[in-house]
């Protein structure tokens, strides 16, 4: 009889582990205290998108509980919403599901809490077009989140020749790249991106294509969020491509990729004459191809193509991260 009870108890524990509870505390890292009244959702990513498994609100002590998670393994996402900003914590199978700390921050509309740490424009010309990949890294060293839909988190210049066609992604600290819309501002050809800049590093990728003129010239403009400190804008071109003009200054070659780096010395409108063709990454043709014209995807696209925008944003983000890492480690940075 005792043996039967012991077996039943073990079975019961095993059943509970299959439907494991997730519990923890919402911590306000600005105040350093638990935060009550925060809405939290438990989300399961999957092939069909994000599935909400449950929702709750942190109690008076900041504590929250989800009685059971989704069986079958795989990552899950805790998402807290506080003062208009979403804060995520990815729960992978190897992470303990008890006493989880879910961090949030107070929000501020002041752009002065953040600054542009790196900004570079990669130009990749072919005989018919110039691919432009702008990477902007914003550093927030405060203990508050910058969030201002009026000013935006990023402002960039989009040449008229792009015909308004641009792809933008944003990636917060320890987050995934997310496609973001580019919104027109009152300034001609200047767009802004709204995104919460949390403490840590946030990276933006802006991608567009321009037709090649005769002669080939890139016309740009230095813009930024009013009140947000910014460093210099740098232009990067692959081996075999050179830039010239009174608005730019050659600062050297990146040793690994042999890319040439230029400083933009103008504080406003600038131009650079382009000579040569080249690319900094392989698979360039694939990345720039419109999948809707490709015969192999006309018949029965796999489910993964439902998230094509996310995948392209991820690809461009990986490229941007690689370029930023190479540039930061380059002896020509200064």
Descriptive terms for the model:
Immunoglobulin-like, mainly beta, 13% helix, 8-stranded mixed β-sheet, disordered N terminus, 4-stranded mixed β-sheet, 334 residues, 3 helices
Description:
The chain has 334 residues and is mostly beta strands. Helices cover 13% and strands 41% of the residues. The strands form six sheets. Strands 15-14-18-11-10-20-23-22 form an eight-stranded mixed sheet, covered by helices on one side. The radius of gyration is 24 Å and the shape is elongated. The protein starts with a helix and ends in a 6-residue tail after the last helix. Mean pLDDT is 83; it is low at 2-19 and 283-318.
Task: Briefly summarize what is shown.
The protein has 334 residues and is mostly beta strands.
Strand content: 35-45%
Span between N and C termini? 77 Å
Domain count: the total is 2
Characterize the overall form: elongated
Write the element-wise H/E pattern from the N-terminal end onward.
HEEEEEEEEEEEEEEEEEEEEEEEEHH
């Amino acid at each position: 009889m005792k043996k039967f009870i012991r077996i039943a108890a073990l079975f019961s524990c095993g059943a509970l582990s299959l439907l494991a509870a997730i519990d923890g505390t919402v911590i306000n890292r600005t105040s350093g205290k638990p935060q009550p009244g925060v809405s939290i959702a438990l989300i399961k990513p999957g092939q069909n998108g994000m599935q909400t498994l449950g929702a709750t609100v942190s109690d008076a002590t900041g504590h929250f509980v989800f009685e059971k998670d989704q069986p079958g393994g795989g990552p899950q996402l805790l998402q807290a919403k506080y003062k208009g900003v979403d804060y995520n914590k990815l729960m992978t199978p190897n992470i303990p599901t008890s006493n989880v700390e879910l961090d949030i921050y107070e929000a501020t509309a002041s752009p002065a809490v953040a600054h542009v740490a790196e900004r570079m424009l990669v130009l990749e010309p072919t005989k018919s077009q110039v691919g432009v990949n702008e990477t902007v890294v914003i550093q927030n060293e405060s203990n508050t989140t910058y969030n201002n839909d009026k000013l935006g988190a990023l402002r960039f210049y989009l040449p008229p020749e792009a015909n308004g066609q641009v792809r933008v992604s944003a990636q917060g600290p320890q987050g995934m790249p997310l496609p973001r819309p580019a919104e027109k501002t009152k300034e001609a050809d200047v767009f802004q991106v709204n995104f919460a800049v949390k403490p840590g590093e946030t990276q933006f990728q802006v991608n567009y294509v321009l037709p090649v003129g005769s002669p080939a010239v890139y016309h740009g403009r230095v813009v930024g969020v009013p009140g947000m400190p910014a460093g210099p804008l740098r232009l990067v071109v692959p081996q075999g491509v050179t830039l010239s003009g009174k608005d730019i200054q050659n600062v050297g070659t990146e040793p690994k990729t042999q890319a040439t780096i230029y400083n933009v010395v103008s504080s406003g409108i600038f131009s650079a004459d382009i000579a040569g063709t080249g690319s900094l990454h392989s698979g360039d043709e694939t990345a720039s191809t419109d999948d809707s014209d490709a015969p192999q995807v006309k018949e029965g696209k796999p489910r993964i193509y439902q998230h094509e925008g996310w995948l392209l944003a991820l690809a461009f983000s990986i490229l941007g991260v690689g370029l930023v890492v190479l540039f930061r480690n380059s002896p020509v940075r200064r």
